[in-house]
Amino acid sequence: MPALPEVDELVLATVKKILPYGAFCTLDEYGRMEAFLHISEVAPRWIKNIREFVYEGQHLVAKVHNVIPEKNQVDISLKRLTESEKKRKLENARHERRAQKLFEVAIKQAKSTTAEAVAARKALSDKHGDLIDAFDQLSETGEKALEGLKVEKGLAAALLMVAQKSIRKTKASARVVVHLVSYAADGVKRIQNALTSLSAPAESELEISYLGAPRYQITVSGHDFKEANKTLDKIREGIEASAKKNELGVEYEEIAE
Prior knowledge:
This protein is an alpha+beta fold and about 260 residues long. The chain is about 40% helix and about 25% strand. It has helices at about 85-110, 115-130, 130-140, 155-165, 185-195, 225-245, and strands spanning about 10-20, 20-25, 35-40, 60-70, 75, 170-180, 205-210, 215-220, 250-255. Strand 2 and strand 3 (about 35-40) form a beta hairpin. Helix 1 crosses helix 4 (about 155-165), helix 2 (about 115-130) crosses helix 3 (about 130-140) and helix 3 (about 130-140) crosses helix 4 (about 155-165). The chain is flat, with a radius of gyration of 22 Å.
């Protein structure tokens, strides 16, 4: 049985068949596995005609909200997806496509066989997580990124050359606006304590901006988009924990970009 996506995972889907009560879609990253989008999960309000919102052949970003492994059933939602999640998924997909193209360029330059290419991809993914991180490490650390890997010599040289030529070491950032509210007599101090307790890893930068009560913008910068978003997710966990400790109300605001 093929691997199934997890609940709350963001997925790329293609609409294949539309019915009055929903749409059957295929999941692009799961071997065209089928998923169902019920009409009630299309929009936050009641809708009469699903075709006003989706059409056959349409490419979507959706959120998995239900998985039944024994039935191989996956249900997806559009209304549970925020704009920031959608942008993040599309950006990650763009990076993945670029990494794949760079890998194909290296294979062509090295005139690698299919077996050599498959082995190299598996080795890089096993060590670095995925091709995106692999190329980042090849660019940043050079031959060190290939240590311990069984990659054909010519392909290894081509991967290094392509990475160092094509990957620019630029900073990427992710941000969120949080509303922190306290009705306690020392509410201002509690909010300050919550914000000052936040921290980011040494390789990342954290900036907190006051936008006017009760709004604060949290910006995290890292060496790439993926790293910045991972760090921001941890920062949000820190906000939740600190807000609970200081008895603060917390809400997040979607940022229009």
